[in-house]
Amino acid sequence: MRTPFWMMTNVADPGVGSLCAHAGPEPNVVTARRTRLRWRIEARMPDITAEYRIIETAAGLVDRSHHGRLRFDGPDAQPFLQSLLTNDLAAMDERRGLYAALLSPQGRMIADARLFMRGDAVLADVAPGTAAALAARLDALIFSEDVRVTDVTAGTAVVVVAGTAAPEVVARAFDLDAQLLDALAPLHQVPARAGAWIVRSDESARAMFDVWVDAADREATSARLTGAGAVPVSRDLADLLRIEAGRPAFGVDMTTDTIPLEAGLLDRAISTTKGCYVGQEVIIRVLHRGGGRVARRLVQLVLDASAAGTDVPAPGTPIARDGADVGRITSAAWSPAAGRVVALGYVARDQATAGARCHVAMPAGEAGAEITGLAG
Predict the structure, then answer these.
(1) Which of 96, 97, 250, 282 has minimal Cβ neighbours within 10 Å of its Cβ?
(2) What pLDDT is recorded for position 45?
(3) Phi, psi at residue 346, to the nearest 5°?
(4) Whole-number Å distance between alpha carbons of 338 and 189
(5) Distance (Å, rounded) from C-alpha 320 to C-alpha 327?
(6) Euclidean distance between the first and final Cα of the chain, in Å?
């Protein structure tokens, strides 16, 4: 019998470097760094209208195994992570996961993670391409703690089911109660047959579930789900759902220059009552002495239909107001539901007001846009 991925013991190689405990000079207002974003230059707008109809009436299937996954074993796994991450792991159990960030001593993001308990292990879903380096960094921080960090990306898989009928499709595929699935809160989880476990995603306002399995079971799981009614769709659609929900992605809308308060992560990822963690001094200083003020905020935008059409602005595209540059686009996609382009982008904090009008530079000229709210 194959060993489930959460029982494997292969430990990632240690890396170099560690985090120190000093946060540096004491600011009242945190100033954003000017960042050179490493984006693809071209803006690609796939025709996803047909895929969107699928999730509006049925359920779409997306393989998101390209994300990284880490596993933490040992009796000190949870205390070790509690001392490093921004959220309170005491709130986590085998039914309920949580979202957290790993910060530098200067309060800037190193990574974000969705964390889950599986037996005695803690599993983390992290941004694509980051798992190996993150495992090495965390391994280097282990001193006397009895904890092991493993990059289990290659041995695991995650298949996403999203859409109006997602609860029914997942329930049919795994002999579960559809009402139970539909009632799950974000990042809550249930075990399923064939060694799978199912998490209610927090990346869409629509019903969305992450199905975790061993990598060897990925194709069989996809077949099980398509047999239950799921229709394969693209990752572009999943990205659109994330943008519509205002959820930032690390490596896209957040970088190592990002302060989590800029990205709107206070309510989701940061505990203001737990004990110490790396970067906490900066976060608390900004909240308590700086009134929560940061130099920029991540906002949701909708572009005017008449001006932009279906053209999608590339990441890094300037956002202007009254002729002045006030920010940059980070993510954008055409939304069939809105009939317009929806986007995320950073703007100066005094411009981050719902209903505020601005302009986005497009290939055919400036397009009008409206800030609809804060992201996060």
Answers:
(1) 96
(2) 38
(3) -90, 135
(4) 31
(5) 7
(6) 42
Count of CB atoms situated within 10 Å of the CB of 177: 11
CA–CA dist 242, 186 (Å, integer)? 14
**Residues 82-93, mean pLDDT to the nearest whole number:** 97
Residue 199 CA to residue 186 CA, distance in Å, equals 8
Phi and psi (nearest 5°) for 229?
Answer: 120, -5
Using the predicted structure, report yes or no on whether residue 25 has a pLDDT greater than 90: no
CA distances from 218 to 154, 168, 212, 213, 306 (A): 11, 20, 9, 7, 43
Q: What is the mean pLDDT of residues 300-315?
A: 83
Choice between 179 and 288, residue whose per-residue pLDDT is larger: 179
* pLDDT-wise least confident of 25-34, 80-89, 105-114, 127-136: 25-34
Q: What is the mean pLDDT of residues 302-311?
A: 76
**Is pLDDT at 298 greater than 90 in this prediction?**
yes
Q: Are 304 and 367 in contact (CB under 8 A)?
A: yes
Give ∠ CA 214-216-217 in degrees, rounded to 5. 70
Give the strand pairing for 231-232 and 60-63: parallel
**Burial call 82-108: b when 16+ CB within 10 Å, e when fewer:** bbbbbbbbeebeeeebbbbbbbebbbb
In this predicted model, which residue has the larger pLDDT, 139 or 10? 139
Order of strands, edge to edge, in the sheet holding 156-162? 189-191, 197-200, 208-214, 156-162, 60-63, 231-232
| Rg, the chain, Cα only | 21
Residue 349: both structure tokens together: 């904090």
